[in-house]
Amino acid sequence: MTTHDTEAFQKMWSRHGFRAELRAAWAISINIWKIELSYPLSVLWFVVMPFLWFIPMLITGSAVAGGSESIVLNELAGTLDWVTYIAIGTSILGLTISLMWGTGFSLRREQNAGTLETLMTTPMSRSTLVWGSMLHNLQHGGLGVILQLGAAIVFFGVTLDVWGILPALGIIALAVIGLQGIAFAVTCVVLLAKQGWMIVEFISSGLLLVAPMAYPLSVLPPILQYVAYASPLTWSTEAFRGFLMNGLAYQGVVQAVFALIILDAIFFAFGALMFRYTERYVRSKGALEQF
Length: 291
What we know:
mainly alpha, 14 helices, 78% helix, globular
């Protein structure tokens, strides 16, 4: 190795700070994209997946409502247009699953590929490994949201309030903070249990069950409604749909944003601390390479 190469290597190794961590997270995100796009079936699944979730709900809703409007939904949620209600609500389903499963199992994928220990020795924060995966899954899931809403507008006559698009994006940004806290906790489960998909399935299914994506909260049993109010996914779904359906006239914005800020702080702080101590514990036990 020449003197110039040595100096360049030492300079790269000594980099630190927010910008360095951001570059590292971006590099991880791009690397995951390269792997996914190398497999055509993966791309096909990404395109088809949102419709496999939405179309069965559309068929069921048509059979139950008998038309494009629902009087019962109007009484419960204040809108007759059940197609738009479900289309917008379920559009963030893929984003949620991508953030929880894709990010939660990010370190497990590196472990299976035999690169986890190497990445752990690089001059970046351990949490950046998870943040890089989150950045990719945010892009991946976000494209799925756009794809599903675009198809719903073209093929199913769904209408969106353009004035609500920017506020809806702000809600997604708030939702990601809370979901990242959950993703950190999921990562801890995977690090400790290795094949902890059963626990992850329970957590994700529980959050999706109480989230008002395809039905209003009022149809849930009282105990599940209380659980729903403690989930950031519930408030983000309601606010996201509220802005896209009603624009700036959405009346629940203050309550939703206030609840999201509080829940985001709780979930993120808990998840980040849990990840910090779990990662140290696993490394101290020399269990990173264990399957």
